[in-house]
Each structure stands twice: as C-alpha cells, then as structure tokens.
C-alpha cells in the first residue's frame, strides 16, 4: 500500500513538473487562453492590407497583461491576441457556494473585458494612424476561409480561423525608448530630442481629442519609425473631458526616468511639452 502511494505521489509530481515545464516553454500561450469573448458582441474591420499581412506566418515575441503578441515573418506586422481567459471565473469559485463573491468577481471582470474591447474600437476609429492599426476582429463572425498561422515560443504551430479569433493587427515599429537611448549613447543629442519631440506630439494630440490612456508606461508602449511616434499598446484608451490638463499627470513616469538618465533632456522635455500644450 505504501509503495503504491509513493508511486502515485511520484506520478503526480512528474505530471505537475511536465505541465509546468510546458507552460514555461510556451510562455503560457495556449488556444484555451485566447478563445473569443462571449459578452462583447461582434466587430470586424478589414482591408486588403490585412489580407496580405495575414498570408504570412507569425512568431511569438512576448506577452503583456492583456495580450499575446506575434511578429510576422517579414517583420512588418504584429498580431495581438487578447488573453480572454483572465476574464473568466476560476473553476473553484464556480463550484464552491460563494455566490456573492462569484457575482462580484463576474461583474468586475465583465467590466474589464468591456473596457479593453472598447479601447480597441477607440484605437481603430480615432487613433488608427497613431497606433498603426490595420485590422480588428472581435467575437465570432460569419465563417470565412481565412486563417492566422502562429508559432508559439516552443515552435509549435497553431492554425487559427479568423472568424473565431479575437485579434488586433498592427504595423510593427521599433521601440521608441531603445532608439532614444541609442541616440544618447552615440552622442547624437539632436536625434534624441527629435525622438522626444515625436513622443510628445502623439501624446498631446491624443489628449487634445479627449482620449485618455489608463496605462502610463512610457518605456514599453511607444514605437518610433524614424519620423513619428506610435502608441503600441491599444488596450488602455477611454474618453475623458479635459484631456489636456490630464496630460501633465501622465508624464510623471517619463520625467522621473529622464531625471535619472539625463537631466538636460528632462529640461528639453518640460519646455517642449509646455509649448505644445499651450498651442491650440
């Protein structure tokens, strides 16, 4: 009996270790975690460039709090798949008799889910140029013979039907922060100033249109194509009055970062920001 118990414990440990290993190897990506939402309705925005872009293979490049991201084979596009599993109620809470807690969590997660998909709509409708968005598909639409071919971090292939997959398709741009730091390292301060100027342009323009961004991260959420800045993250937008006044509040992380690496650039940043805010 003891021997059988030991064997069972060992088997459970091996299975748990194998599952954990697969999770880390795939960076947590699975089809179950990106299945389309059921509460947000349907939306399909498409064009010819999207057809061309999705004819390629896509390879895993990372994940954030909201989405898994895959880069196209030619390096020009990014497909983002929302992590819809994070809006589901855990199995233990669905089974146990905690109705009040279950309903509170359900309401909270439904609100979060609605927010991110509304943000996607705002990004496409009002900020398409600023975000580089090409296509948006939410929910499950009429069947069509279109597919997205993905490879996860472990190299496993996924062939996803477009009509059943919620996704965002964007142009891919280099990270703005990396371009800025490279300019400083190369001693090209004029280029560094030009990059900061482009960043301020896109943030101020958005604020003047009353569009607020809930995620204040400067370090990872903006790209730069050599001419203009782009907001890479499209899951944090909402409309808010007096957006211009709010812009200053969102700049605290940027100012803190600049103060730590180059106080002279912080002075340039503050002066440029105030000049652009005062311009109607």
Descriptive report:
The protein is α+β, with helices and mostly antiparallel strands and 280 residues long. Helices cover 46% and strands 20% of the residues. The chain folds into two domains: 24-171; 176-277, Transferase(Phosphotransferase), domain 1 (Orthogonal Bundle). It has helices at 2-25, 48-53, 91-95, 99-126, 128-131, 176-185, 189-208, 243-250, 252-261, 263-277; strands spanning 43-45, 57-63, 67-72, 77-82, 133-138, 147-151, 157-161, 167-171, 211-213, 222-224, 229-231, 237-239. A hairpin with a 4-residue loop joins strand 3 (67-72) and strand 4. Helix 7 (189-208) runs antiparallel to helix 8. It is globular, with a radius of gyration of 22 Å. The termini are far apart. 27% of the residues are buried. Mean pLDDT is 83; it is low at 10-26.
Annotate the secondary structure layout:
Layout: H1 2-25, E1 43-45, H2 48-53, E2 57-63, E3 67-72, E4 77-82, H3 91-95, H4 99-126, H5 128-131, E5 133-138, E6 147-151, E7 157-161, E8 167-171, H6 176-185, H7 189-208, E9 211-213, E10 222-224, E11 229-231, E12 237-239, H8 243-250, H9 252-261, H10 263-277
Parallel strand pairs: 2-6
Antiparallel strand pairs: 1-5, 2-3, 3-4, 4-8, 5-8, 6-7, 9-12, 10-11
Helix pairs in contact: 6-7, 7-8, 7-10, 9-10
Rg calculated over all Cα atoms: 22 Å
Mean pLDDT: 83
Beta-strand residue fraction: 15-25%
- For the report, how would you describe the main beta sheet? 8 strands, mixed
Spell the H/E element sequence: HEHEEEHHHEEEEHHEEEEHHH
Number of strands: 12
Low-confidence stretches: 10-26
Termini gap: 81 Å
Q: What class do helices, strands and sheet pairing give?
A: alpha+beta
Q: Structurally, how many domains make up the residues?
A: 2
Instruction: Please estimate the helix content.
Output: 40-55%
Q: How large is the count of helical segments?
A: 10
Strands ordered across the widest β-sheet: 1-5-8-4-3-2-6-7
Shape: globular
């Amino acid at each position: 009996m003891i021997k059988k118990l030991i064997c069972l414990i060992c088997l459970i440990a091996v299975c748990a270790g194998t599952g954990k290993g697969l999770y880390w190897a795939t960076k947590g990506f699975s089809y179950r975690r990106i299945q389309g939402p059921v509460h947000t309705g349907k939306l399909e925005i498409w064009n010819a460039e999207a057809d061309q872009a999705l004819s390629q293979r896509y390879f895993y490049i990372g994940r954030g709090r909201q989405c898994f991201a895959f880069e196209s084979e030619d390096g020009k596009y990014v497909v983002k798949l929302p992590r819809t599993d994070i809006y589901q109620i855990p199995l233990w809470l669905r089974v146990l008799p905690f109705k009040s807690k279950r309903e509170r969590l359900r309401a909270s997660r439904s609100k979060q889910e609605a927010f991110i998909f509304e943000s996607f709509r705002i990004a496409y409708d009002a900020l398409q140029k600023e975000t580089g968005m090409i296509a948006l598909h939410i929910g499950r639409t009429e069947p069509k013979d279109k597919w997205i071919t993905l490879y996860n971090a472990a190299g496993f292939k996924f062939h996803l039907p477009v009509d059943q997959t919620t996704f965002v398709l964007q142009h891919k741009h280099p990270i703005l922060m990396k371009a800025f730091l490279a300019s400083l390292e190369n001693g090209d301060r004029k280029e560094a100033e030009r990059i900061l100027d482009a960043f301020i342009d896109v943030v101020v323009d958005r604020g003047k249109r009353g569009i607020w961004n809930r995620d204040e991260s400067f370090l990872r959420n903006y790209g730069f194509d050599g001419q203009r800045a782009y907001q890479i993250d499209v899951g944090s937008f909402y409309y808010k009055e007096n957006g211009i006044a709010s812009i200053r509040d969102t700049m605290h992380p940027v100012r803190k970062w600049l103060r730590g690496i180059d106080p002279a650039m912080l002075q340039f940043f503050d002066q440029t920001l105030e000049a652009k805010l005062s311009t109607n």
